[in-house]
Amino acid sequence: MATTTFDRDTGRQDHSRGAVAGTAAAGVFLALVGILHVLQGLVALFNDEFYVYGEEYIFTFDMTGWGWTHLIAGVVLAVTGFALIQGALWAHTLAVVLAGLSIVVSFLWMPFYPLWNIVVIAFDAFVIWAVTTRRRELTRS
């Protein structure tokens, strides 16, 4: 069970090592997801013919639009991941929202690179779990 202590002299709360490690890991995974999105975006922008899909897909978008979507989302995700590692409180809420949006974008992008997107979705799910678990501990204390 996670323990949280409060130091009356300094006014600081010391949270369990597991919660802090989980949040740091979530920050690393979120930054990694951001970097993966940036790479997908750059490939889509610089080489339109790299991504191909066989069957008609209901969510068909222009490759340049996808490239910019992935590039911008990736930068925002990476910055939020690094802020989460640093312990910024605003990054907790934003990380959950952005990881959820990343899951949706990765699902829509699934026909172009299925295995890659399954990995990204798994990382995003871990981020949501780790950040919300730590949030519950902070709320209890």
Automatic annotation (TrEMBL):
Keyword Lipid biosynthesis part of the UniProt annotation: no
Keyword field: Membrane, Transmembrane, Transmembrane helix
Pfam families (alphabetical): DUF7144
InterPro entries: DUF7144
Transmembrane segments: 20-46, 66-84, 89-109, 115-132
Record-annotated DUF7144 domain positions: 23-136
Keyword Membrane: yes
Protein name listed in UniProt: DUF7144 domain-containing protein
Organism this protein belongs to: Kocuria oceani
